[in-house]
Amino acid sequence: MSIEIISRHGDYRYRDAIRLSLQSAVAAALTFSVMQSLGLNEKFVGVLSAALVVQPSLGTALGAGGERFIATLVGCIVGILCMFMLPDGYGTAGALAISMLVMNGIAAFRPEWRYGVVAAVALALGSDADVIQTALERSIAIGAGVVMGILVSLIVWPERSVTRAGMHIQHALRAAADLLESRVSRTNGEETEDDDEAGRRFLKELSSARETTGQIRIADNETLKKKIDAVERFQHGITVLDRIAEQSDNVVGGQESIAEELEEFRSLSSTIIRRLASGDGGSREEQESLGHCVEKLRDIVSTESSPAESHVRRNALVYALDEVQSSLDRLLDLYAES
To answer: How many domains are contained in the chain?
Structure first.
């Protein structure tokens, strides 16, 4: 299987594993070669920094590089202070303990600064005779590693945060299609398999999409945020369908007109969602047909004569499907604009 096929069509976890491994290997080798040719010390720290700067997306790498350099400076300051306050010998153990205490305490509030522990430990284990020189060399090595890691992320199989966020949205849509098909079928009295896994995928991909969108450094992310909000609205409709199914095994109650419209809705909505997930978009005709399904169901439910409890459940069903249809309308408009 070629890299291009993996990148476009494969499971992105395997693609990420290959891409990040390749980027890390190139970044490590390049950093070592540059530091060796320039006669720089602290090659271990430089190579480690370059490898750790490589991230799933370019925006994340840029953020990680800046945070890692700041963390190193903080770690150097902590290590220097500990070395000056405590003597050599057994005092080194105290300096090491204080460095760990301070840096991990900071990391509890700023997790991205945990990398500063590396610099703090190195300085705490040194001697007060060369602590400033060690701090300077270490900072230069970290800076070189950060620059090389970011350059490699830009050049070797780069992936922008915008692209990655869109990919997570597409995976969330596929999971949403699975969930919706199952939920609508269940309200129609059909036996369905356990779809907890689809629910977990939906929430995980949606969370990843929102997180990645927050890491976008250059491009406008407002459209992506609106798409995520629209996909999240699916969850409202699906949650209502869940509650309806919990209260009754068959909301339709054998009424063929409702069953037919439900099946039509399930088929149309699934088709539209999966097309959006594949990047093909949806047609206005299908969008209008889906709206007609909801209106027909609303008319049937409003004019039928049924027990009060069944009537309430069916109205809730119409509300849930209307939420789904409104979400799709919004998504189709957003994808048409972008």
So the answer is: 2
